[in-house]
Amino acid sequence: MDYALFPDLLDKLAKIEALGRSALTPASENVAELKRQAAAAGKRRARDEKRYELGGLLLTIGFENIDYYALYGLMAHPDHLLKWSIEARQSSATQDLARLIEHIFDDDRRAERCAEWGRYLSWTRMRTLYEAEVTSFIASGKAGAKQRWRCDPVSSKQLYLIAQICKLEGIANPNIAKKGCAFDWLYERDGNPRYFKRPAPLPLELS
Q: How far apart are CA 72 and CA 101, in angstroms?
């Protein structure tokens, strides 16, 4: 073919090829993102199932009336758990583990200090996720008020963080539906400085 007869042909073919590439690239990226999300969702489901199993076990053996944060703090101090459980066993007739833990927390100072540690450890665990969802996102320059993502449904990570902060603060969940509103809610709180400071060591002899 004599391309000299069609001076615009090569240019048009090049534009068609470029258009095809531009259409395929986002599609390929979308497929890759969908695969990534599917893999992440599978891991979350497995992790959530394990959480439900362990939580169900605690309920089965009678832990439903024990404060979450106090138990968290106590279990983070195995020496205290062992010593105080032995003391509780010696001073009571029960052999039930949940009743022994309740007996430990009958001491208000122990319950308060363990809960203090539990809240601190809980927020420390969430802080990495908070940084990824809020602080680093602001640094990326994508947090503007007119960004299209703000109208997307709230993400599962945002819902988790909101629920945990509400639990820590003892406030009602705002039931936010949009990702942008959830982002602003989290950013305004920036956690609670009360939980950033490591509590004083928990003494074994505490009553």
A: 12
